[in-house]
Write a structure and sequence with these properties.
One of its GO terms (molecular function) is oxidoreductase activity. This protein has 263 residues and is of the alpha/beta class. It has one domain: NAD(P)-binding Rossmann-like Domain (Rossmann fold, 3-Layer(aba) Sandwich). The chain contains 8 helices and 7 strands. Helix 1 links the parallel strand 1 and strand 2. Helix 1 packs across helix 8 and helix 3 runs parallel beside helix 4. The model has no long low-confidence stretch (mean pLDDT 97). The chain binds nicotinamide-adenine-dinucleotide (NAD). Nicotinamide-adenine-dinucleotide (NAD) binds next to helix 1, helix 4 and helix 6.
Length: 263
């Protein structure tokens, strides 16, 4: 599908991997509705992109009503611009590391577990379920019958989760597992589904890693011996949007890296 002249709804579009997708889409003649909690970063992105190509809609993906009002706003903007919705890029996500029991043998907090699952899984699916009715009904199909794409973000943790990643791995494993049934549900509407599973990419999420953790991860990298860059993530998302044969797949984007158990 062509990016030009289409609007993409990008959760987590204010920062990191989502922001890189917003930049790439807008540089190719597309439009981006940024759904995020971080107004400051989102408005900075909108200003940086300019030309009315990107617009911010405040949303907390933990709350159905918040998603609903952001989606309503984004669809009103689409009506104004006439650039129909080409897809959703669900990049909002959190990681709250905790081992199942701590040094004093206290079990980890279920509130923290629920938080990670609710942002990463429920928040992703809630956004998708609120946008696809519009895409199925209103986005015109091209000659192949294609209407659009859902891009979701999993992680290397879905395959080789590290110590302290029970919650995060559960959430990213869920995204990995639901990719195929979601593809099958949406196929009849000409909507494809692609999930990208990155390893370590530079972003605000990974900026909080200590130098020690960073160095030990670099030691187990295959090639290249550096974290991925957000624009390299965006490149794969752009290819996923443009290549109609990519569907129902989880693409590892990890330079061959497998996450170790010990750091
Ligand atoms: N950076 C990595 O190494 C890496 C690796 C694998 C997977 N991922 C995944 O990529 C996605 C993007 O992460 P990133 O590295 O760009 O992190 P980031 O922190 O730079 O960006 C995440 C964005 O999501 C937004 N967000 C968080 N919670 C939200 C909520 N409840 N409602 C709305 N917006 C919310 C944040 O405000 C932020 O703008 C996440 O799903 C993350 O799990 C990242």
């Amino acid at each position: 599908m062509k990016i030009e002249g289409r609007t993409f709804i990008v959760s987590g579009g204010a920062s990191g991997l989502g922001r890189a997708c917003v930049d790439d889409i807008c540089s190719r003649g597309g439009y981006a509705a940024i759904l995020d909690m971080n107004e400051e970063l989102a408005e900075e992105a909108v200003r940086g992109i300019g030309g009315g190509k990107a617009k911010f809609f405040e949303a907390n993906v933990l709350e159905t009503e918040s998603i609903a009002s952001a989606v309503k706003g984004a669809l009103a903007w689409v009506k104004e611009t006439g650039k129909e919705v080409g897809g959703v890029i669900a990049a909002a996500g959190v990681s709250t590391p905790a081992k199942i029991i701590d040094r004093n043998l206290n079990p980890f907090s279920l509130d923290d577990f629920d938080f990670v699952m609710n942002v990463n899984v429920r928040g992703t699916i809630d956004l998708v379920r609120q946008v696809v009715p519009h895409m199925a009904a209103s986005t015109p199909a091209d000659k192949d019958g294609e209407r659009g794409i859902i891009v979701m973000v999993s992680s290397s943790a879905a395959f080789d989760g590290q110590p302290g990643q029970v919650a995060y791995a559960a959430s990213k494993g869920a995204i990995r597992s639901l990719t195929l049934p979601l593809t099958r549900d949406l196929a009849r509407y000409g909507i494809r589904v692609v999930t990208v599973a990155p390893s370590i990419f530079d972003s605000r999420m990974t900026a909080m890693m200590s130098d020690k953790v960073r160095a030990s991860l670099t030691r187990v990298m295959e090639f290249p011996l550096r974290p991925g860059q957000p624009h390299e993530f965006a490149q794969l998302v752009t290819q996923s949007i443009e290549n109609i044969m990519l569907n129902g797949v989880v693409l590892r984007l990890d330079g061959g890296m497998r996450m170790p158990s010990k750091m």
